[in-house]
Design brief:
disordered N terminus; BPS1_pln
Amino acid sequence: MKRATIASAFSPKPSKRYSVRSISLPARSHPSTLKVEEELNKLKSWEASSSTSSSPSSSKVETTICLNGLSLLSELYRCIEDLLNLPLTQQALAQNQHQKFVNNLLESCLGYLDLCGNTRDAILLMQACIRELQSALRRRKVGDHLSIESIFTAYSCSRRKMKKAIANSLASNLKPLMDKQFEDSPMLALDDHLAAVVRVLSETSLTTVSIFHSLFVLLSLPVLKPKPSRWQLVSKLVLKGEATRKEQPGMNELESADIALGNLLLHNSSEDMIIKAQKIQSAQIRLDALDVVMEGIEKGLECLFRHLIRTRVLLLNIISH
């Protein structure tokens, strides 16, 4: 993959996902190497199909991309652990002339660990805020409008903090990793097994960056603020409940929560107690759904973090012998 292609994929509004091809290794490659190839091709095929079924305005699909992407990526790194555990792989990478390549892998792995940790911390803070809001909505009385603004303000503040944390990780961790290109390594001219190892590890690095970028795009969505002139129609749809999801295929859990909470701010003195109660119930439902998504991403990051730790330990053992 050319450097220009990678850079364009990380623009604020990427026009498309990575254009990656399926890899094909020699038939005599070790089964562990072929398993990594299989997982890579599976992840790329899935990502390509997700890309064609979504659009810039359809961020609902992005939620699935992030959840499933993290799961597939964790399985990919589990297979890489098996590959790095092979004596054949360890002997090949332990040679002095390959130390720079292994050091680059270690540096990238450390960068991915930082990304996992920082993103997980930001999500945990967001989850804490969501649960505080859920508790506040359960406690408040239907006719009490004084606390609504403070509830939305707290939610917006937590979203901004998460977005800032994501932006910092993007700048300090993700962008430097974009410059890692292992394809130019002279080891590709060596034996088949080592060439295959280099190839799949390089492809894995690019795929990891792609999945993290999709996650950051989702978590960095701006908060939808209530504007009565354009808000009324959408907020009415949200109030209709879960059946509304079929009418709004492009709306993800973050956007649904924004609308439901913002709808609480659209106070109308003529509203009866039933309408007000519906607004509160809608906000609670949307926050519950958002909490489930955040928890799923957090668990996916935790699982990936453990696999990255084990991968880094294996690489450290290789260069220490």
